[in-house]
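Re: the 136-residue chain
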Amino acid sequence: MQVIIYKFVDGTTNAVEVTEDIYLIDLQLLKEEISNNRRETRRHTSLYYFTDMGIDFEDKRIDIFAEIVRKENAERVHKALLTLSDKRRDLVYKVYYEELTMRQIASQTGVSHTAISQRMKTIRKRLQKELRDCSI
């Protein structure tokens, strides 16, 4: 004779004496239930469950189309910049790469703020024209 112990939700337990055959059947059913629960949990566990547990998944996929467009645009801008004179390219470098203000550049070069702004306006128009011509 074997003993099967049942545990209830309210915390109480009940022990039942059964034959060896019944005990083995109960043991087999318990193993199948555990296996089924694992399988179902594995299939149906959402990402929200993991994020609630503090596990985060980073999306490492890249948008290939966006990456191609970004590279093509960078090449087009680079080619357009090469059409500028050295002085104009230097001004673009100071504004966009060194992130200097028009006033800072004006004080460095001894030129008025208005003149630097006007030069940048001319450079932008020239680059826009070059970029339009490159896309045709």
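Helices lie at 20-44, 47-52, 64-82, 86-97, 102-109, 113-135.
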